[in-house]
Amino acid sequence: MIPNMRDSEPTSTKSAADQPEMPRRNPSAAAEIVDFGVAELVLPKAPSHATELVFHDDEPVFLADPAPVPAGQTDTTVFLADEVPTPTPRSWLWRAGAAVIRFTGWLIQSLFGIASLIVLLAVVAAIPVVNFLALGYLLEVEGRLARSGKLRDAFPLLDQAPRLGSIALGIWAWLIPVRMLANLAADARIIDPGSFADVSLHILLPTVAILVTLHLCLALAHGGNFWAFTWPLAIPLGLALGGLLILATFRFVALGTVLFILGSLIWHRTQTLQWYRSLISRGVHFLQRGATTYWQRLRHFWSLEFWDHAAKSFVDFVASLKLKHHFLLGFRGFCGAMAWLLIPTAIFGAARRTEGGPVLLTLLGGLLLMLVLSWVPFLQAHFAAENRWGAMFELRKVRKLFQNAPFSWTLTLLVTLTFSLPMYLFKVVLPPADAMWMETLVFIVSIYPLKVITGWAYHRALTRERRAFFGWRWLTRLVLLPLLATYVFLLFFTQFIGEHGKRVLFEHHAFLLPSPF
């Protein structure tokens, strides 16, 4: 608090008439200080009130304006502001530690988001028709990277993926006790039908199922993050389970209580009762404060604003996933690639004998398939980058882009075909439908980097304005010829080891649906 210095009775014994009249200077507008020249300094009395100061942005702000000056008097008020203390800078060790902690948190969140995204795509790819969403997302990755060339664009849903992962993990964790209780109830019905255990477990099972369902709905309405799944039923359920655990281990709890009392008597001696009283008081205060906070949070769940906000957040989150866009992108990309691959693959797999005329038909189909496979990856990248159906058939434009970066395109095709062949081994024996996501996980992990590399190669060719040396272009074509021939030769034998027979030839998981069926 800084007092206001205003006009008041002077402390000097001289009167104002006895003092010589001296010329006065105008006060400075910047400092608002009146210069009285050589006149005697007149100090005001101590003020009866003070003006409060608050500091904002390192500048003092006066909350109360000074009182008006009566007519005929001079304002001698001086506003003083002490130097604002600057915060002490933290040491470099503190800043480095904070930076490491922030980077570690960001890295963990990003890795969790990527893992959640890959698992989610694997689950989606295992569902028929819905797996067009997985293909659409992979094409979205390819298109974004083809347009920008930046690696950070290779994960379009990275912001939403951690939330999806926490929702899936939270639901899975809360369904564990329901499944365990269901197994116990089934065992009790088989071992001793109609017994007390059988009846009580079958009454408890629907009750717990309803409570868990209600809890999951409220957790999803609260945001679906990790902490949301601890409200609102986690605390009472935890207390109930803790009480049951105490009853089940009552002997050990009683023995521990006796040992605790004896230890406190030995340690505190004469102050034992006072220590107990303090301990109980703090415990009661902690429980009371926790119960009050818990009750306030529960009341918040039943407010109309909460549910309006939850509904709006849910709609915005679903809209951010762009499900319609990804589904249509995947469906059109599938149809475009199949339009190129269908006829050559049909000719390639039409022969039923390996002698005579059918062999020539197989060779013709193989040659056509080699030509199509050399351009389909980049036609699909061109389609994903421009998001136009007609872009899937602009072969002349794609061939011109190949001339700008032939080595990048050759490397991309080499990696694509090399990663595609081992995945045919997973089609020898297909797993059950409920375990199909385990195989589609391998397909997603293998195909995802292929789309990233293809998008990068397309962007590299798109940003180069000059064609490469014609010698390099023909050299890459000579390298691609044996590569494509080897791939088509090995592809021919997959129909004899795959569970689907000749249908395996048409699946082309590197360009069509990322699934083994």
Structural topology:
Elements: E1 2-3, E2 50-51, E3 53-56, E4 59-62, H1 92-125, H2 131-148, H3 161-191, H4 196-221, H5 234-248, H6 250-268, H7 272-301, H8 304-321, H9 323-348, H10 357-386, H11 395-404, H12 406-420, H13 436-463, H14 470-497
Antiparallel strand pairs: 1-2, 3-4
Helix pairs in contact: 1-2, 1-3, 1-13, 2-9, 2-10, 2-13, 3-4, 9-10, 10-13, 10-14, 11-13, 12-13, 12-14
Largest β sheet strand count, sense and barrel closure = 2 strands, antiparallel
Secondary structure: helix percent? 55-70%
- What's the helix count? 14
Number of strands: 4
Structural class: mainly alpha
If you average the pLDDT, what whole number results?
78
Can you tell me the overall shape? elongated
Q: Distance N terminus to C terminus?
A: 79 Å
Low-confidence stretches: 1-20, 25-31, 49-65, 77-84
Write structural notes for this entry.
By secondary structure, the protein is mainly α. 63% of the residues lie in helices and 2% in strands. It contains 14 helices and four strands. The chain has a two-stranded antiparallel ribbon. Strands 3-4 form a two-stranded antiparallel sheet. The longest helix has 34 residues, at 92-125. The radius of gyration is 39 Å and the shape is elongated. The relative contact order is 0.09. The model is unreliable at 1-20, 25-31, 49-65 and 77-84 (pLDDT under 50).
